[in-house]
């Protein structure tokens, strides 16, 4: 059985999405299907077919979320003593050794990853290179553009 590591925030966000899909989206789609069905001939009823297709996608997402929640391993980084090592859930400040560009990333589960918000999946090449390393370590990350060296400046449990 596959386990899905998640931060507390990621777990709560999935629970919130699940509740929204069950309590708001699912009933609305049922109403839409009923209204489209009332229009008559279902063979050529685009509204009906679109609503049914949407319903299938929503039901698949609900099942996916339920599976992930059931098989989740919630990690509350705030309860883990700080050691200076990069762990799942930590926020890491790193510097590109060549360009001196400083970036900050929060290492999260796949469902939570959003590069624009500085959240990277623990399975990404960068996070994989950083995990288990410590402040002051230099890591080499293989990217499509070549190898990039980063120095770990700071690791936070926030």
Detailed description of the structure:
With 158 residues, this protein is α/β, with parallel strands linked by helices. The protein folds into two domains: 4-75, Transcription elongation factor, GreA/GreB, N-terminal domain (Helix Hairpins), CATH 1.10.287; 79-156, Roll (Chitinase A, domain 3), CATH 3.10.50. 39% of the residues lie in helices and 26% in strands. The chain is built from three helices and seven strands. It has helices spanning 8-37, 46-70, 125-130; strands at 4-7, 72-75, 91-96, 102-108, 119-121, 138-143, 146-156. The strands form two sheets. It has a five-stranded mixed beta sheet. The protein has a two-stranded parallel ribbon with strand order 1-2. A hairpin with a 5-residue loop joins β3 and β4. The longest helix has 30 residues, at 8-37. It starts with a strand and ends with a strand. The model has no long low-confidence stretch (mean pLDDT 93).
Q: Distance between the terminal alpha carbons, to the nearest Å?
A: 29 Å
CATH superfamily of the largest domain: Transcription elongation factor, GreA/GreB, C-terminal domain
- Kindly state the mean pLDDT as a whole number? 93
Low-confidence stretches: none
**Spatial strand order of the main sheet:** 5-4-3-7-6
Topology:
Blueprint: E1 4-7, H1 8-37, H2 46-70, E2 72-75, E3 91-96, E4 102-108, E5 119-121, H3 125-130, E6 138-143, E7 146-156
Parallel strand pairs: 1-2, 4-5
Antiparallel strand pairs: 3-4, 3-7, 6-7
């Amino acid at each position: 059985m596959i386990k899905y590591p998640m931060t507390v925030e990621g777990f709560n966000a999935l629970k919130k999405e699940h509740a929204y899909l069950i309590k708001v989206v699912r009933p609305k789609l049922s109403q839409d299907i009923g209204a489209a069905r009332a229009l008559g001939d279902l063979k050529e009823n685009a509204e009906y077919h679109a609503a049914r297709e949407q319903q299938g996608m929503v039901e698949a997402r609900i099942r996916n979320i339920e599976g992930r929640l059931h098989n989740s391993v919630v990690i509350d980084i705030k309860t883990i003593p700080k050691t200076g090592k990069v762990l799942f859930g930590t926020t890491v400040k790193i510097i590109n050794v060549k360009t001196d560009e400083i970036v900050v990333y929060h290492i999260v589960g796949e469902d939570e990853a959003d590069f624009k918000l500085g959240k990277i999946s623990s399975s990404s090449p960068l996070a994989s290179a950083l995990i288990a390393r410590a402040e002051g370590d230099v890591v080499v990350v293989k990217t499509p553009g070549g190898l990039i060296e980063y120095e770990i400046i700071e690791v936070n449990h926030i």
